Amino acid sequence: MRTNMKIIGITGTLGSGKGEVSAFLRAKGFVHFSVRDFMTKDLKQRGLPIVRDSMTDLADELRKTHGPSYIIETLYAEAVRAGKPAIIESVRVKGEADFLASHGAFLIAVDADPKIRYERIRARKSDLDHVTYETFLSDEQREMDSVEANRGNIRDCMRRADVVITNDGTLEELHKQIERVLPKLF
């Protein structure tokens, strides 16, 4: 189900600003599809706690059962049905990045200094983000370099990105970077 519609996948390190990139693009008319929202809905239906470990375990299970790109394929189909330019946030697995590339979508990677990212996640006060700095780094490492097809490999997804944004500065600086890269994508 390849489409001529603009679809952008967002990948990146924990707390790097993927949500801010998505919010900026939503303000430009893109429809937003989130792996976190998809997983949260499924966890609630299963009566499981909404914590990073549950989310990661469920994502691994879904990918193992349905294939490495299952979650992104599902969100991609929803994006196509929406019929508008779309963002799919939180590409984490090589198969997901490959699926998006094979369907003409673009991938933006977002990164920032780990200490800045940790401060950002603490400030957003999400239920998933009440962790120590050491846990934050450990959680990220678990998702960075897996060689298993069904598990997170953020580093590989970031290598496959069409554009990498370094988000160590202000929100205004991030917005300027996005404005500069959008014409390169389409």
Describe this structure in words.
- This protein is an alpha/beta fold and about 190 residues long.
- It has a single domain, classed as P-loop containing nucleotide triphosphate hydrolases (Rossmann fold, 3-Layer(aba) Sandwich), CATH 3.40.50.300.
- About 55% of the residues lie in helices and about 15% in strands.
- The protein is built from 9 helices and 5 strands.
- The chain has helices at about 20-25, 35-45, 50-65, 70-80, 95-100, 115-125, 135-145, 155-160, 170-185, and strands at about 5-10, 30-35, 85-90, 105-110, 165.
- The protein has a 5-stranded parallel β-sheet with strand order 2-3-1-4-5, with helices on both faces.
- The two termini are about 20 Å apart.
Write the layout of secondary structure elements.
Blueprint lengths: L6 E6 L5 H10 L3 E4 H12 L5 H15 L3 H13 L3 E4 L4 H9 L3 E6 L2 H11 L8 H12 L9 H6 L3 E4 L4 H15 L1
Parallel strand pairs: 1-3, 1-4, 2-3, 4-5
Helix pairs in contact: 2-3
Quick gist of this model?
With 186 residues, the chain is an alpha/beta fold. It has nine helices and five strands.
Number of helices: 9
Class from secondary-structure proportions: alpha/beta
If strands are numbered along the chain, what order do they take across the biggest sheet?
2-3-1-4-5
CATH architecture: 3-Layer(aba) Sandwich
* Main beta sheet: 5 strands, parallel
CATH superfamily: P-loop containing nucleotide triphosphate hydrolases
Low-confidence stretches: none
Question: What count of structural domains?
Answer: 1
DSSP strand (E) fraction?
5-15%
**Principal-axes shape call:** globular
Helix content: 55-70%
Rounded mean pLDDT is 91
CATH topology: Rossmann fold
CATH classification, class level: Alpha Beta
